[in-house]
């Protein structure tokens, strides 16, 4: 039985080789872009939007030209949080020529600005908000029913490279050209032209 | 060609707007719940079970009311490990009003108890077991053929909030209302009403 | 409405119980192996290749017998980087009886050798390359247009166990039987028969 199935698969590889499947994938991604694009505040040309990614609040999201959002991620701008009835004016602005890796998570209730040419690895988190402040009085409230808070907007300047699995927390600015090492947790501003690593991230090299 | 595909996608967005797809998703999730629910030891009402999540040993898993398990994760209770022929009596108990983020991984051979109102971000690990003890005599055995060991059960009390990518290791209790920062690795007990962060996680704030 | 859908799901669980779906999944995975296998440099018997995983440069990848690559991952060997027109001779060699967890990412432009019986958790990164060196002169170039660099090959010896979410960086050798704790970032060689943990990973136990 197993050999029959392996042979069926092999035959199929001659009838419909990967190059045809890839073309079909690309065609599907254009159809998906066409489907999605009118919901965004603005979206540039030559963008691709990952499949199996959860998009919420597209009307608060602006994406530049030639930018790619990865598969299996979350790109979410919340204007309303039903549990607390809070209303927000979120903004996510992503520049030109960016590439956000697969399984990444960008979530705003305040403001996230990503410049041009920003590259992230897979499984990156960029957030401007938390499920409640770290204060005593709310700790017996279920976390999902605490008021969402933003300690400040997130800004990632041009030409930043964010390594796989890194997390950019609220109220952080990462300066031009800086490099965030894989798996870092960035809780404070990182100036331009630095390498930062660790949890919490510290500057390990100043390159200019 | 590309423009034709973009236009097809756009047309499709008028014929079948996202609100209809979302309804269809919700309908599918109810069908999936109906399909899955009778295999669990017990599962409350108003739960949702993520799609593309691997469920193993549902008969050892109890889930309360109004709890959500994320997509693309793993929820596994192993009663038998074929490589070593070990037999376990695993138990996973998840309370009411919990939400487990997408791509999360909960795995037991012993006991994992998650209280009520627990919220986790995406890509969280909660485990009560390891692939073999850290002892010399087994290190030339392939890890997948080492005896699974549990150093103790895991207990996560009510109203705990676990940040994105955090990992809760075996033999850990996290007390009521505590907050585990994103990307932490919790290897020791965390008392109630604390904030813990880092790898290994340390208490960075005591809130009560 | 909801109750009707739950009932439809329940009925479906009697008509087509999970055991049939699992058989169908296994059948599909054999078909997929048959489809994919002729593109690899070599691939042993009894292997399984995860679905929804991105495979690039299979002709530079050798996989032994009885090895499993997880779902939703990336296994990529780049012979050409279009942005910089760089040409590489990548090699990925994975031995017998390995299991690479789901959502893992193995990426080479140089050489990655994984021995026999290596087990990894989900969401592991193994990379021999970076998007550009950490030097001043390139920091105003978009990271995706910087020359890819490899600081050296990666070697993971037999019987190594790599915990969930760990990252193995370029120019690292992990010796036989060693254990890499969950969420570690390994930036330097780890000798045989050790336990390493942290970011960057340090030896926390020498077992032989």
Greatest interface by residues involved:
A-B, 37 and 43 residues
Count of helical stretches of chain A: 2
- Could you tell me the mean pLDDT of chain A? 96
Report the order of strands and helices of chain A: HHEEEEEEEEEEEEEEEEEEEEEE
The CATH C-level name of the largest domain in chain A is Mainly Beta
The structural domain count of chain A equals 2
Poorly predicted runs of 5 or more residues of chain A:
none
Multimerization status: homotrimer
Write down the overall geometry of chain A.
Answer: globular
User: Which bin fits the share of residues in helices of chain A?
Assistant: 10-25%
| CATH architectural type of the largest domain in chain A | 3 Solenoid
- Give the radius of gyration of chain A: 20 Å
CATH superfamily of the largest domain in chain A: Hexapeptide repeat proteins
Span between termini of chain A: 63 Å
How many beta-strand segments of chain A?
22
Main pleated-sheet profile of chain A:
6 strands, parallel
Record the strand order, biggest sheet of chain A.
1-4-9-12-15-18
Blueprint (SSEs and pairs):
3 copies of one chain form a homotrimer.
Chain A: H1 2-15, H2 18-37, E1 42-43, E2 48-49, E3 54-56, E4 61-63, E5 68-69, E6 74-77, E7 80-81, E8 86-87, E9 91-94, E10 99-100, E11 105-108, E12 111-114, E13 119-120, E14 125-127, E15 154-156, E16 161-162, E17 167-168, E18 173-174, E19 179-180, E20 185-186, E21 194-197, E22 202-206
Parallel strand pairs in A: 1-4, 2-5, 3-6, 4-9, 5-10, 6-11, 9-12, 11-14, 12-15, 13-16, 14-17, 15-18, 16-19, 17-20, 19-21
Antiparallel strand pairs in A: 7-8, 21-22
